[in-house]
Amino acid sequence: MSNMVVFGTQWGDEGKGKIVDILTEEADIIVRYQGGNNAGHTLVTQGKKFILHLIPSGILHSGKTCLIGNGVVLDPEVFCAEIDKLDQSGIAITPEKLAVSKKTHLIMPYHKELDQAREAAKSGLDRIGTTGRGIGPCYEDKMSRMGIRAGDLQNMELVRAKIDKALVEKNSLLENLYGRKPVDAQAVFDHIRGLAARIVPYLADVSARIQEAARKGRTVLFEGAQGVQLDIDHGTYPFVTSSNTLTGNASAGAGYLYSMKKVTGVVKAYTTRVGQGPFPTEQDNEFGDHMQKMGAEFGSTTGRKRRCGWLDLVILREAVRLCGPTEIALTKLDVLSGLDTLKICTGYQYQGQVVEYPPQEENAMARVSPVYEDFPGWSQDISAAGSWDDLPDNARRYVGLIEDFLGIKVAIISVGPDRHQTIRLR
Question: Residue 180 sits in a domain of what CATH number?
């Protein structure tokens, strides 16, 4: 079984959805192993745009099986809405095509209430920039051993008992700490009961599905969400997501110990992040405006404008160290067209010395100064480039510089959002 894993090397939004969509042609099963609907993967095929938040990006291909692993937190309402939207687009989603692990934790309405109340109570730099979709509180309940799992929907008495238990704590916080109205247990139960019948047919033993694929020699593609710098342990804490985004979590989040032939790190040709937190190469100027406009840099989940900056090789070195990519998929190279000079961050000035990896003290990334090298740009529009030879000399040199610094070859270059706007190198 020639397994693959795709991960984001930066702060997310690198274009993982498109890369998963492309690599799905080489896979039989696609597994999402962490995160929730705080991630959005945008796919464009034949001019038609799809935005997926929970369902793996391989769902657009016929003859493929998509699985949602136990490491994901699933909003039942969003899940059903995605199925309906795909169905309206002529893509029928059956339990044979899509399955959810019975161990996957469910995001409940009170998780969202608590998430939004906490963020609203913060001010200034204390704000994390959470999407307010209940991701963090759901993971908290998972770790506190009081969460509701997808498999519980087969026993609604158990679900009601868990709701009552959870709201003892949640309502105390909402009322007494945040001054909000308590959540009604019956209303929550009625809401989830109305969705349960739709979700139960999709429940499965995901570990067994992957194991069966292994026995038959089939290829499994593991799909991550967010990026390395949003990892709960290794990212720019506390401005991070609530799960481990690293490739090492694919085994735990999917429920199967795997051997990996291909580890694809998705690198945007520049750097972006959404929400609060340090961003050393951010360009709040005409260069950042160019990237934001040309790259249509708006969050696919929140619609928020993304902060844009130069390519940061320091965080990419960290991604290589933590995730061990065997190849790079370089995305949005076309966005840099039209800039006379590009800057690339090769190190940070920190506490009187140049460092090649992010410092590990809390919020230390807010106290670094990027060390830049200038690089000549190119003026040609490369969105129609179909091969390596179609790229301008300086664009090829830019790709080569990334390879040299990271010691990893670029195997895929994306020059536009559509599936066909892709150059395969090796």
Answer: 1.10.300.10
The reply to whether 371 and 415 lie within a common domain is yes
**61 and 25 in contact (C-beta within 8 Å)?**
yes
Q: How far apart are CA 245 and CA 248, in angstroms?
A: 8
Tokens of 322: 């933590």
Q: pTM here?
A: 0.92
State the CATH number of the domain containing residue 35.
Answer: 3.40.440.10
- In terms of DSSP bridges, do strands 311-312 and 341-350 run parallel, antiparallel, or are they unpaired? parallel
Domain range enclosing 304: 266-424
Q: Which of 156, 183, 199 is the last residue of a domain?
A: 199
Backbone angles phi, psi at 224, to 5 degrees: -95, 170
Alpha-carbon distance of 105 to 242, in angstroms, equals 13
In terms of domains, do 385 and 240 share one?
no
Q: pLDDT, tens digit, for every residue of 301-333?
A: 667 789 999 999 999 999 999 999 999 999 999
pLDDT tens-digit profile of 78-88? 999 999 999 99
- Dihedral of CA atoms 330, 13, 24, 261 in degrees, nearest 10, equals 60
User: How many domains is the chain partitioned into structurally?
Assistant: 3
Alpha-carbon span 250 to 85, nearest angstrom: 28
Q: Are residues 59 and 87 in the same domain?
A: yes
Catalytic site residues? 13, 41
348, containing H or E segment: strand 341-350
Q: Which two tokens stand for residue 6?
A: 């795709």
> Ramachandran region of residue 49, left (φ > 0), alpha (ψ -120 to 50) or beta?
beta
Q: How many CA atoms, within 13 angstroms, populate the side-chain half-sphere of residue 222? A: 37
Task: Give the containing element (helix H, strand E) for 110.
Answer: helix 109-121
> Does 343 share its domain with 418?
yes
- In angstroms, rounded to a whole number, what is the distance separating the alpha carbons of residues 20 and 363? 32
